[in-house]
Amino acid sequence: MSALHLRPDLPPFIQDENGHIPMADDTANWLVIVTREAMEAVASPPDATQRRLLEHMTTFGSVATYKLEHGRAGKEETIWILKEDVAEWRRSQSDH
To answer: Which pTM was predicted?
Structure first.
């Protein structure tokens, strides 16, 4: 399975407090939805702004790829990134 990558035609955006990152892999277009809590938890101090979303797009993309690889994508080509998903992904990275 290939890693998700940004879709150059669609920039990330914030809507209803959540970050949205349009991404794709070899088979589908995906919408990665990052909860406010996940954006706040990814770095200190807690922040859920467009800037935080853009600064950590690579991390959120890696977390989304991890979820996809483990069969945990949502319906209709969405992948939700929760605070717990970021923590789990970080733990998995420290195991290597």
So the answer is: 0.92
